[in-house]
Predict the structure of Prolactin regulatory element-binding protein.
Amino acid sequence: MAHRAKRLTTEVGFPIGCIGVTLGNEVVLGGGGGAGRSGVKNKLAVYSIDSAGLELKKVSEAILSSEEDAPTCLAVHPSEKVVISSINTSKDAIQKGNNNNCRVFELSKKNVKAKGKAAKTICSTSDYDYQKCIAIDALGKLVAGGSTDGTLAVVQYPSLRQAFPYVEAAGEVNDVDFNASGKWLAVATDSELKVVSTKDGSLVQNIDGPHTASGQPAVFRFAKFGAGNKSKLKNGTELRNVLYTVLNTKSRKLAYIAMWDTKQWSRIATRPVCQSAITTFALSPSGKLLAVATASLQIAICDAHTLKVLLRIPAAHSFAITALAFDRDDKYLISGSADETCQVLKLPETWPNALDGVVDLVMANLQAVIIAIVLLIAILAALVVRS
């Protein structure tokens, strides 16, 4: 199925670090060369998708300061033409404790411009630390950010005032996500998954010692709450009451997705999806599809109800895949890479059957399959000679 999927890659001229999709299905890309004199500009750029050819066409952009970092994460407001992004300030400002990294940008057909005052959501005074992940609740009133220094910040929108004091995590924060009601916030670190109340940051649930179904040690890489109105699993659990976690084994040779029932806080299922560490994870707006990208540059799309892999795209980019996002209608999957390209994949109207899935798996591991066949033929030949 992978080779039949229609996709088009567009060169954008800067390394992509983050992606968002607006209510009008425009694609927002953040990235650049970072602080210094790399010659690669830091940008927030907006593109439209040409539905006929899948080409990205630039709508507007903001060229950001070369004295500051490139955008490291962004979230699109659910009802306003606004993007909230984290951009580290200059090294001197950071060391003085003035890293007003959390910034609001207004989007229009003419430009992308800063709106209002920026706010500080990182405690660290080291320019090596940055905000790794961001999320905004469904009502657009709260923004959460997790940083490499192990702190969680939640601010109110549009004031950007702290909703409650910083929460200390067990390590570098890998992912944050609000549930459908906006009352809970999931916070994932390598060794621990916290769910906290958005009212005051108090602990709702804590899951530590991540492991696969067989007990193999793993790390929590991503955590996202399910979505969709009244869509249910076979056991009757509504998708909006499911929490998905990505588990990378510590050997980084296998990656799993696990589903948790947030009513009982029990694990529903754990399924292997890739033979390489997952580096990027996205959930479609309808809640029906999941997408992952791996360290081996593969993209896989899964059924959110069963975790079954529906489609694999081997060698999707030539360098690290840094971001994934679905459009608002589940028609496209957009991927961004450090290789300065953005790819639009048109999602099939119907998904492959079990046989197609087997073919996909074989194609994704074709070299290993050929070697195994050659070795088998050699062994059989040796046995014939001996007899």
User: Anything to note?
Assistant: The radius of gyration is 21 Å. Residues 366-386 form the longest helix (21 residues). The chain has two domains: 2-352, 356-387. The mean pLDDT is 92.
